[in-house]
Fold these 3 entries.
Entry 1:
Amino acid sequence: MENLETMIQKGQKPYYRPDLERLLNNLGVTAGDTLILHTSLKSFGYLIGGAAMLIDTVLNCIGPEGTLVMPSQSVNNMNPKFWQYPPVPQDWHDDIRETMLPYDPQRTPVDDALGAVVAYFYRYPNVHRSAHPLYSFCAYGRDAEKIVENHPLDYGLGTGSPLQKLYDAGAKILMLGTTFETNTSLHLAEYFANRPDIEESAPVLVDGKKQWVSFKNVDLDIFDDFLDVQKEFFQKYADQIKQCSLPNGEAYCFSMRDCVDFAKAYYQVKG
C-alpha cells in the first residue's frame, strides 16, 4: 500500500470501505460465493484499514454461506538443492537444511511475495490452513475445512489439492490489482500438459520431531507464459469476465472452471 504522502502528491483520494463494497458488487461477488483471492494493496493507492479492512469487507460480502481461500505457499521451505530464484552455492546446502524449521500450519510464514493481505489472512481467527509444506492454502467460511483437509504431498497443486476442490465447487477467481502472474489456478491446468515429474522435499513435523520428506511434482512454469494465457483467455471470455478499474490497477472476477479449462487446452496445444 502506498504511503499517505505519495498518495497526496498524486492527487488521489483514499480508497474507503464503501468504495470496496461497490467494487465487489460491480464485480459480481455475492453472498454464498466461494472465492480464491489474489490481491495487491498497492493497486488501491491508500486503502483505509489496509489488509484487515479488505478481508473483513470481502467476508461480509460473501456472508456465512461463502468461503474465502488464498494461496499461502511457503516455497522457501524447499530443500535448497531445488532453489532456482536464485540457486545457492552447494556448500550452503547442509547448513540450510540443518537450521531450517519444519513446516507448521500455524507458525510458518507465507512467502513475502504473496503480499500483506494473505500474511494477515492466514492468522485470521478460524482460518484453516492445509498441511502441505510448500503449497498450502488457507480458507475461511462454510467449506473451509473441506477445501484444505487431506492436502496430498505428491502433486500438491493438482488432483486432490485445494485447487481441484475449488474447481469442483465452482469457485470464482477474484483478482484485485493483480495479473495472471499470481493466478495459482493455472498450475492446476499444467498437470494435464504432460510435464515431466520432478522430486521435491521439505521439512515437516512427525511425532513432534523434524523430518525431511520427499514428494513428487510436475515441472511447473513459474509465470513464463501466464500473461499470454491471460491475454488469450480475456479475449475469448470477454463477455463473461467482470472488470473494474482501481486507482493503480485493474480488478477482475471470473469462473475458475472456465479459466482452468481454457488453460488446459492452451497447454495441450503448446505441448
Entry 2:
Amino acid sequence: MDNDPGIVCYKHCGDRNVFCIKLPSFCHVCKQHVSDSLFIPIRVCYPFARASQHPCSVVFKPTNGDFLKNYRLMDDLHIGITTSKGVVVSYDCNGVVNDDVNTDAWQQCLVVYRVEEASWETQWDNVLMEIARADFWTKARLVMVRVILWHEFNLRQRYNEDTHNCLSFVVEFVKRLGMLKTCDRVINTREEFTDTFIAPATVNAQKYIHLYRKIVENGFYVYNSVSNEIVCS
C-alpha cells in the first residue's frame, strides 16, 4: 500500500506556486491552460516511510492514528527501532513489543536515523536483542503493590509514560550502540535525542501535513513565492 498522496506543484500566474494532488489541464487560479507555463511541474517530497523498508533505523509515529489524517502538534508520539529485517522493536505499557514487517502500525512513520553500512547490521541486531531481553523493560503494573515489598529500582523499571517509556528504550539502545553522534557531541540523554532528531523531523513533517490538509479542504493550495522549504525536485 502506497500512502503517498502525490502532491505536485506547478508555477503559474506569475510567481504563484499552486499545489494539488493531480496536475490539472487548467490553472486553478486563472483558468488558463497549464501548458502555457514555462516551468515544469515538480513532485513534493513525501516525508513519511514504511518502517519495514528501512532496516537498522530509528523511526517514530503518532501513538494514535497517523500523521496525515490525525496528528496535531504536541500529540503523543511512539518511537521504535527496526532490525536488519525491518521488524520494529519498541517499548510500551505491554513491555517490549515486536511489530511484524507486515503490520499496518508503522506504514506511515518518520525515519530519524538509519545505518547505511551493512557491516553494522550484526552489531545493531545484537545490541537491540540484548536490551530487549533485559528485565529493565517491564510492562506497566495495573495492580497496587506495597512499597515495602519492592525495591525502589524495581518500581522505577516499570513502564511509565513520562519517565520510563519508548524514548527511554531508544536512548538506552543509542547509548549502548555508541555510534549515534552529532558533529560536536555524543547523544546520551532523552533531551539531546529529542532536540537533535525528533523535533526537526516533526517540524518538517508538519509543513507537509499542513499543505496536504489545505489541498484536501480546498482542492488546491496557492503559495505566492518560491517555497524552498516545502518543494523539492
Entry 3:
Amino acid sequence: MAFRALITGASAGLGAEFARQLAALKVDLVLVARDGARLERLAHVLRSRHGVAVDVLTADLTQASDLDTVADRLADPDCRVDILINNAGFGVYAGFEESRITDERRMHELLSWVPLRLAHAVVPGMLERRSGWIMNVASAAAFMPSGTYGAAKSAAVSLSRSLNARYRTRGVRVTALCPGLLATEFHERMGEDHLPALPRIAWADTAKVAREGLRALHRGTPVLVSDWRYRLVRPLIAVIPDRVLERLGSTNDPLR
C-alpha cells in the first residue's frame, strides 16, 4: 500500500516542490491551496508523469470552515494520511506600528494555529498505526528578533520539538524545516519593492531545501536549518546582540 502525503500551500514554490519530489518516490498526494485551478494543473502533471493518485482540496486555511474540512480529511480513518506537510504561509511587510491588525492575525493563524490544528487532527490516527511523519515549514527567522513573522515561526519550531519529543518513541516523527531566502513567489506576492536586495549566493535552491527537508523528516530530526549558508550563520545569532539583529531585520520582511 502506497504512502499518502497531504501538503498545504502546494500550488507553488516549496509546497509544489515537495509534491514533485514525493510523487517521484511514488507517494500518493492530497494537495491543498486556495488556487484550485493551479492545483489541478499540478495534479494532472504528477498523475501522468509518476502514476500516483492525487486529490485536490481547494481551501483557504484562514477560514474556519475550510480549515475544518482539511482537518476532517486528515482524521478520516478510511483515507489515512501518513505524511503531513504544513507549508502554507504568507508575510506582512509593513512595520509593526503600521501593519493592519487583521493582517497580523491572519498571518499568525496560518503560521502557528493552522499547523497545530492539522497536527491535532492527524496525530491520533498516526499513533494508532504507530507510524507517521509531520513537517512544519518554519523559517530561519524563527531564531531572530525579526518581527511578528519570526514570532509566529518560532511557535511552529516549538510545537515541532514538543511533538517529536512526545511521540517519536510511538512511531510519529515531527520536524521543523527552517529555510532562509528562497526564490519562490513568496516575496513576489508582496510586490517587487519588497524583494530583498541581496546577492545571488544568499538565495537557497528550493529543490535542494525540499530534499534536505524530506531526508530530515524521514530521520526524525526535530529542527533542520536549511541550507548550508544558514546553518553556518545560525551559531553567530546566539552571540550577536538582539538590538543589532533587530536592526538588520527592522521590518516584518520574512526570510522565507
